[in-house]
Write a structure and sequence with these properties.
Helix 2 (about 15-30) crosses helix 3 (about 40-60) and helix 5 crosses helix 9. Strand 2 (about 75-80), helix 5 and strand 3 (about 105-110) form a beta-alpha-beta unit. Strands 1-3-2-4-5 form a five-stranded mixed beta sheet, sandwiched between helices. It is globular. It has nine helices and five strands. With about 210 residues, it is an alpha+beta fold. Helices cover about 55% and strands about 15% of the residues.
């Protein structure tokens, strides 16, 4: 994968706050991100705006995790690929933002998947354009340090198990998954990302 694809994604990216503002504006217009505009996607966007608003206020990071995050010493940009209608993204992005806020070495940027298909196609999940996807880029070298997403580890296990038994995800399962996210309160995302940080920059976590 060429650096040009990542650089193009970075050029098209916005801050988390700008993304939150964009979603609010879309809700007012009863619209959504992406080329396909319909009532369902606009409805999910509205729901996700509420979810993100709640998580922005309520996600808590433990003292232990905070120390690990603050110790991360690699200046990096975290490019998060998303769309306003994505349910998983509404839970993941606020948690990633909380982590980024704790460390000046982490610069979080948000980019829309369907306007950057070359970018998402370089970071497919099991052959699919699954979002959200966090790409951690070393600022000095432009090298990809690691990726995270589209779901935290426990949610991924739940999804994989259900798919293995039932073939595809049902609306009922998707509701159960939202319930899992609400119960977990972002903690699985924080643990997964903290683990990645210690692997990427092991010296910093000592």
């Amino acid at each position: 994968m060429s650096n040009a694809i990542i650089n193009s994604g970075l050029k098209n990216s916005i801050s988390y706050q700008a993304y939150r503002d964009l979603v609010k504006q879309l809700v007012e217009k009863n619209a959504n991100t992406g080329p396909e505009q319909n009532a369902d996607l606009a409805g999910y966007t509205k729901l996700n705006d509420k979810r993100m608003k709640r998580w922005d206020k309520t996600i808590k990071i433990s003292e232990d995790d905070k120390k690990q995050i603050e110790a991360f010493s690699q200046k990096s940009t975290w490019l998060v690929i998303t769309e306003s209608w994505c349910g998983d993204a509404a839970h993941v992005l606020p948690a990633i933002n909380k982590i980024a806020e704790l460390n000046d070495n982490i610069d979080m940027k948000v980019v829309l998947r369907d306007e950057n298909l070359e970018l998402i196609d370089a970071f497919l999940t099991n052959g699919g354009r699954a979002i959200p996807k966090v790409i951690m880029i070393d600022n000095a070298t432009g090298e990809v340090l690691n990726t995270f997403g589209p779901r935290p580890s426990e949610a991924t296990n739940l999804v994989n198990r259900f798919k293995a038994e039932n073939g595809s995800l049902t609306p009922e399962f998707k509701e159960d998954l939202q319930y899992w996210y609400n119960k977990d309160k972002g903690q699985n995302i924080i643990k997964d990302v903290t683990k990645i940080l210690s692997e990427v920059s092991p010296v910093a976590s000592v």
